[in-house]
Amino acid sequence: MECIRLWSRELGFQSFGISDGNLSKEEPRLQQWLDSGFQGEMQWMADHGTKRTRPHELLPGTVRVISVRMDYLPENTEQIKVLKNENKAYVSRYSLGRDYHKLIRKRLAQLAKKIEKFSIDHGLAAPTQRGFVDSAPVLERPLAEKSGLGWVGKHSLLIHPEAGSWFFIGELFTSLPIPINEHIIDNKCGDCQACLKVCPTDAFVDSYKLDARRCISYLTIENKGPIPEEFRQPIGNRVFGCDDCQAICPWNKFAHYTQENDFLPRHDLDKTDLADLFLWTEKEFEKKTEGSAIRRIGYERWLRNLAVGLGNAKREEKNKAALKQRLEFPSALVQEHVQWSLGQQENNTRRRRIIASHKWR
């Protein structure tokens, strides 16, 4: 176990833990959440039967799950300042740099090779192993919680008392029966409800229960169609994901800044005007989001999200001019959002709008 701790540190993981992977207690909770329809269009959440809660069904032979943590928060990205500036585009902090999937998956593969070599060198059979990073039917946070990496907070994200929640997690399934972590971190949310109250779209049905259909991350990333009008003003200037529930969490005063240069902001995505991003050509979008998590939504939805942001922006000629340049864009989805946004700009005669940043004022 100490060898794995050393190797994980060498590979850039801030912490690791080991669990037996038994998530039987999570099965009824997951099914209840799915039966409520809270997954929206994310059909993949209901696919694969019990593989999501039974690691040995996903990878036969699995007896242990190694969970790892990697911090991603860049320094000085001024989250609240950007949120309050209606002309700026707010991009979720996790997506400002390189896509984490490939980076962490590669590191997990390297960790697996070290474990395999160690096993063979000590006369053991090579274990069956596979790494996962938000890319398969795996209940990552419950597994990480069980491995001792933190507790699942009321906002459904993992929290560590000495590192907050600005981090990625990944898993390595293995058939090697290594000792499990016996130290589980108790839930320390207490009576705090800051994350629930700050949500711009009131996506939390209750503590620990998120209706993804109302979540800005879902609406701007997973949702492939129009953004429902009831959520457009509350979305404010958030054009890819949302961090409000993390930004307000008191445990994040202990968060660590990332040590990975790949997670640092690219192309000034942490401080660029909505109008400037909206005028990117498709070629520019493809070039500037290469290797980024943003690429997954495609150019059309990128413009859809930015159009909503511009509808909530200040009534300035630069913003209206940018919108008008896309009136003839060959996409009904984009055109509809542009027309809505122009209407918002015309109707906003400097009266106080209800925008998503109102809970931060």
From TrEMBL:
Q: Which cofactor does it need?
A: cob(II)alamin; [4Fe-4S] cluster
The reaction(s) annotated as catalysed by this protein in its Swiss-Prot or TrEMBL entry are:
epoxyqueuosine(34) in tRNA + AH2 = queuosine(34) in tRNA + A + H2O
Q: Pfam families under this entry?
A: Fer4_16, QueG_DUF1730
Q: Its principal location? A: cytoplasm
The membrane-spanning stretches of this chain are none
Might you give the EC number(s) for this enzyme? Answer: 1.17.99.6
Any coiled-coil ranges, and where? none
> PANTHER family under this entry?
EPOXYQUEUOSINE REDUCTASE (PTHR30002:SF4)
Q: Which family does it belong to?
A: Belongs to the QueG family.
Subunit structure, briefly?
Answer: Monomer.
| Functional note | Catalyzes the conversion of epoxyqueuosine (oQ) to queuosine (Q), which is a hypermodified base found in the wobble positions of tRNA(Asp), tRNA(Asn), tRNA(His) and tRNA(Tyr).
Please identify the protein, giving its name as recorded: Epoxyqueuosine reductase
Question: Can you name the source organism?
Answer: Sessilibacter corallicola
The record lists the lineage as: Bacteria, Pseudomonadati, Pseudomonadota, Gammaproteobacteria, Cellvibrionales
The encoding gene: queG
